[in-house]
Amino acid sequence: MSAALRNLSLSPTIFSSFTLLLSISSLFLHSCYSSIDEQGQALLAWRDSLNTSTGVLNSWNPLDSSPCKWFGVHCSSNGQRCRDKLESSSFARPTAFKFSASQVVEEPYPFINQSHRCDPESVPSPSGIGNLSSLVYLTLFDNQLSGEIPRSIGSLSRLQIFRAGGNKNLNGELPQEIGSCANLVVLGLAETSISGSLPSSIGKLKRIQTIAIYTALLSGAIPEEIGDCSELQNLYLYQNSISGPIPRRIGELSKLQSLLLWQNSIVGAIPDELGSCTELTVIDLSDNLLTGSIPRSFGKLLKLEELQLSVNQLTGTIPAEITNCTALSHLEVDNNGISGEIPTECENLQALDLSYNSLFGSIPKQIFGLQNLTKLLILSNDLSGFIPPDIGNCTSLYRLRLNGNRLGGTIPSEIGNLKILNFIDLSNNLLVGGIPLSISGCQNLEFLDIHSNGITGSVPDSLPRSLQYVDVSDNRLTGSLTHRIGSLTELTKLNLAKNQLSGEIPAEILSCSKLQLLNLGDNGFSGEIPKELGQIPALEISLNLSCNQFSGKIPSHFSDLNKLGVLDISHNKLEGSLDVLANLQNLVFLNVSFNDFSGELPNTPFFRKLPLSDLASNQGLYIAGGVGTPGVHLAPGGHTRSAMELLMSVLLSASAVLVLLAIYMLVRARIGSHGLMEDDTWEMTLYQKLEFSVDDIVKNLTSANVIGTGSSGVVYRVILPNGEMIAVKKMWSSEESGAFNSEIQTLGSIRHKNIVRLLGWCSNKNLKLLFYDYLPHGKLEFTSSRCWQGRSRMGG
Hints:
Helices cover 10% and strands 22% of the residues. The protein contains 7 helices and 49 strands. The strands form 8 sheets. The chain has a 20-stranded parallel beta sheet, with no helix packed on it. Helix 6 (737-747) runs parallel beside helix 7. The chain crosses the membrane at residues 646-667.
């Protein structure tokens, strides 16, 4: 969705003064000394409604025959028009206007940028506004009006501009009487609580050029009568609850330039008649329920610059006629059911998003000849063929996502010509060959994801130093990890898992001081684990060295990884004790199984709660029994008991532990259930736009969904009703309010693309829950509150 369109606003520059513009009838030319006329009385009533102690307006004398000599009032030479200009210095302090029938404001009052200093009370809309029969401009936006638009507005036959947007408490329906404002040119009610359907009388507005009622509460269908607004140029009705189809008569709007209807509930097909609006430059119908195909008549829209049809239920193909739209710069039809091949020859394209459709065939070479193309997103389709060398011609390309297709061949070396390329995702394809050495030429590259292909060769010695995220997992890479890995000083996440890499981890990895996640699992690395890994200050999310050939002891420097959340060193040849890990307070997942560790397991709450499967197959490792009770060993060897006795002891102990654990989980579940029944009053805060209820979360807090435990809670994987997956941390005790509040305060203020987000939280008397992003690939992407406090200090 175009950011320029999303932020489109009708608000003018806010001046240091405001203007009262109205038509003054010819009565001002007559002598009437006994009292001021009706228009003058309106101005006096407006003055009296202001909450100000200044005497500047006291010069307005009700005994004058005309207001033309009043301070700030200027009449035209023929007396037909009057402009009342009051500088901001006229008022002693900012005030929320008590709008009455007389208030006529063209610009927002001079203190609009200091609204927090104004009277917070909402004030009624001017119900008697219809008395100002000569009113031309009525602009009341960004105030604190409340109530409904009075029906008397239909009496303003000369009204040209009506703008009252930004008044959140302005509600009710747009009255049918608005159709009587025959001279209306601009109707602006954006960001209000206007509800109901657009009245059919809207078709009487023969001079209307702009209708802007976006981010409101409109519902119902757009009336067919909209086709009678022959002068309409801009129709902004996005972010409402409009239903029904797009009226076919919209095709009669020959002057229409912008049609923004995104994020509604509009159904049916896109009418072919829309192709008759040949002045259109922007169409945004995304995020609706539209069906059918893209009309071929769109090929007649030669001035069309942006076509946004994302997130609908469109089918069929992209019509070849779309290539006639030579001015088209943005084409986005992602998240639909579009099939067929990709059209070519839209020579001015800057952004193309066809993701999440059913497109097939190869990517046309012509697309890679587009000099202005900055964004090419065709992920999750059924494309085949190769990435042509012509990609090197797209020198303006900034973002490239072709993942989730069936693309084969090699990554062309010409990709190194893309000097400003920032994001590459070619994952989940059938690519072969090596990572081209020329990729070092992508000097601004921050994101590189080519996982799940058939990439061979070694990791290049020279990668762009700007890289922050690298995922080359699930390929066929061989050789050792280059010592020049240390040059990637901006790197935050490195995933090289599921390859055939060997050798030792170079000590230079310490220079990757911003590294938060490192996954080298499922390779053939050998030697000792370098102590430098324990000296990386930012290593907080996950360290996975599993399924390798590492030997020796765990480096003593690992005790400094006190921010780390996930550690997996299983399936290696490591030995020694686990005491070095005893003080890692933020761990939520630890697996040390299938090594040669020995000695007593650290006697900490975290280690006591570890599943036996994460400790299994370690010779000589044992859990301490109670005081004066001999230790219960996890594996035989080095003890006087017979192998059979030891084995029986292990089995009995394991069974006892499992029974106790089952009883413990049942008791906790019963307590939790009882707590929910006892007190169902929940407090919930969300930092992201999510759609779920507390019940959706609580019913998934089962043992089957447990993915980790920590010193302060247990972590679950929860699938929301919309299919989205999040991680939920349930605090061990409802009394742990300190850790709970600390985590909320710290994580709630952090927003960074490389740091997992706290999505929100909820609590009642018995339960405290935290909601996080869930890391795909099966590991957690969060840690506890102390980790986040450290990150905050580092500016993360």
